[in-house]
Design brief:
Blueprint lengths: L1 H29 L3 H4 L1 H29 L11 H4 L1 H6 L9 H6 L2 H8 L5 H12 L5 H16 L1 H14 L7 H6 L8 H8 L2 H13 L2 H46 L8 H28 L4 H10 L1 H15 L1 H26 L7 E2 L5 E7 L10 E6 L3 E5 L5 H15 L9 E4 L2 E6 L12 H15 L5 E7 L7 H17 L2 E6 L3 H6 L5 E5 L1 E4 L2 E4 L4 E2 L7 H7 L4 H10 L1
Parallel strand pairs: 1-5, 4-8, 4-9, 6-7, 7-8
Antiparallel strand pairs: 2-3, 2-5, 9-12, 10-11
Length: 574
């Protein structure tokens, strides 16, 4: 119903514009001034229609936010853009998930189920939060306080959402580049544009007074106009590249001002940051609005006027100057708004979960214990419980039995625990870990690296990351599967012994029973298994203590109806 009413208002808006055009044409052709007075009520109607329409659109968007609360938001995500803010701020972090670990744990998909953000800063900062696990429980608990407010208090989350909706998302906006990089613009044009914006109005008059020849004046005026147009054409592409970001920055500053006044006591620290940072950047808002307004005119006559007068260029340079002088404050505003939007998104994600818990952290460094832990991407996941105290585990089992999923379950939940203080388990206790993985390294034929070489690189980076500050939780699916069995087993034994001696808590899945037997005193042993019946192989995905004795490679070939000649020879050689 509201959408229909909004369409009616749009039609009224067009009608008012039409009537206004008719009145102006009548005045221009007949010179009847009385018609101009009719513009006054029309302008009032136009303003009222625009205001009511905007209010209704905001309310409809907020209603959509309410309807989708606690539900996954499926939309196209450009991860190249989403990671922009992280790429600029990662140098300030002691540790972050490297690309191998992020890929191994399918964190793009995990991000997508958590992401219900309303703004571009929110989307980018949520990515950064998941990419940079925290090692300070106090920071995580402070995050949780705000997330819990949005999770439980409808009024608080909707009041914040209303302001974030006004900021919105824009695909072609790159605020991080504007704030963290030097602006790719030759600032020497600034004084030139300043002077040339005045000269076309002064020089021709001086020439007319000096030479008393209107033809010389007109010729000079035309030359100066051409110079200004050429400068406009030269600079316009660069200005256009930044204009959308500058306009979006204006939305961000205006919304930040409103958010800083929200009556939510848990946001006190954020409101203080916003209030401190907003004071020196208020002038940006007006200038940013001007640049964006000029960019969006779309009228040939006004565009020609802007070309001649270089108004767009001068407003742009003026805005850039203020942005450069106050980048530190603008970065704080950007990150603060992004974090609040991210916390709102995490609260919605929590409401979508049937079961989750807050992690409990312990001073016992190589300790991990979780009950009924599941992978957050699986709708009908089978819960398992696991406990590791001072030593890792070796996981055996047949193909497709659930080993790789369990590895990712542990890795993903450890990341979620130390980033969004949320775990898909009934209980979770552990120390703080740097999570690193080697699950699916790939051949790289473009640079001539084999599968084994990529595996060796992946494990070496884990070894090199070990320092004295925090322990590593390393998750490996088959050590050196890309080489021959004898070297694989021997190398694996030595590497896992090295991990144990150097306080690296390792969770390793393997098909090599010799490896499990050799290290059974130093690692806990667990396995997954399948059942065979008339329908084929059935997996229960339950974790069991010990070493898996069964194999299913030949069974799988039988189920797929491989020729008996092949199956018989395999059975004879096994």
């Amino acid at each position: 119903m509201k959408k229909i009413f909004i369409n009616y208002l749009s039609n009224i808006f067009l009608l008012v514009i039409g009537f206004s055009g008719i009145i102006i044409v009548n005045f221009a052709t007949h010179g009847r001034y009385k018609y101009l007075f009719l513009l006054i009520p029309l302008v009032c109607i136009l303003a009222a229609v625009l205001y009511v329409r905007q209010i209704l659109i905001l309310k409809e968007t907020l209603n959509e936010f309410t309807r989708r609360w606690g539900k996954r938001v499926d939309r196209k995500r450009n991860f190249h853009n989403i990671r922009h803010a992280f790429d600029y701020i990662k140098s300030q972090k002691d540790f972050y998930l490297d690309d191998q670990t992020w890929s191994d744990l399918t964190m793009d998909e995990v991000f997508s189920i958590v992401d219900r953000t309303l703004t571009s800063p929110g989307e980018e900062i949520l990515y950064s939060i998941l990419k940079t696990p925290i090692f300070d429980e106090e920071i995580l608990k402070n995050r949780d306080k705000i997330i819990s407010v949005f999770e439980k208090n409808i009024e608080s989350r909707e009041s914040l959402a209303l302001e974030l909706i006004k900021i919105n998302k824009k695909d072609k906006v790159d605020i991080p580049s504007l704030l963290w990089k030097d602006i790719d613009m030759d600032l020497r044009w600034k004084p030139i544009c300043k002077v040339l914006s005045i000269i076309p109005y002064i020089v021709p008059v001086i020439i007319l007074l000096a030479f008393k020849d209107i033809r010389v004046m007109i010729a000079t005026y035309i030359v100066l106009i051409i110079i200004n147009i050429l400068i406009h054409i030269k600079l316009n592409n660069k200005i256009y590249m930044y204009s959308s970001s500058i306009g979006y920055l204006n939305n961000l500053i205006c919304a930040s001002n409103k958010i800083s006044k929200l009556d939510i006591k848990e946001l006190r620290d954020y409101k203080e940051i916003l209030n401190q940072c907003l004071k020196p950047v208020k002038s940006i808002s007006k200038k940013a609005y001007q640049v964006n307004r000029i960019e969006g005119t779309g009228n040939a006559f006004t565009e020609l006027f802007y070309m001649i007068s270089l108004i767009k260029e001068n407003e742009f340079f003026s805005c850039i100057k203020v942005i450069n002088n106050h980048k530190k404050d603008l970065k704080k505003i950007y990150i603060s708004i992004g974090e609040l939007d991210a916390f709102l998104s995490i609260a919605s994600y929590r409401c979508s979960l049937n079961n989750y818990c807050n992690p409990q952290f312990t001073s016992r460094s190589k300790y991990f214990s979780a009950e009924d832990i599941i992978h957050p991407l699986l709708e009908k996941a089978v819960p398992n419980s696991i406990s590791m105290d001072s030593k890792g585990i070796i996981l055996t089992g047949s193909n497709m039995s659930g080993k790789s999923t369990f590895l990712r379950t542990i890795g993903v939940n450890t990341v979620l625990a130390q980033s969004i203080y949320t775990v898909t388990a009934s209980s979770y206790h552990s120390g703080f870990f740097k999570v690193m993985t080697s699950i699916s390294p790939e051949d790289n034929i473009m640079i001539g690296k084999s599968y084994y070489f990529r595996e060796a690189e992946a494990i070496l980076r884990i070894i090199r990351e070990k320092r004295d500050n925090y322990n590593i939780l390393c998750v490996i699916d088959e050590v050196f599967r890309g080489t021959n069995p004898i070297e694989r087993v021997n190398a694996s034994i030595e590497i896992l012994n090295y991990f144990q001696r150097n306080d690296i808590l390792a969770i390793v899945a393997t098909h090599d029973m010799e490896l499990a037997e050799e290290l059974k005193d130093k690692y806990g042993l667990y396995y997954f298994i399948e059942n065979i019946n008339e329908q084929g192989m059935i997996f229960d995905y339950k974790l069991r203590n010990g070493i898996c004795k069964s194999r299913n490679a030949v069974k799988l070939l039988k189920i797929l109806h491989y020729p008996k000649e092949i199956i018989g020879k395999i059975d004879g050689n096994v």
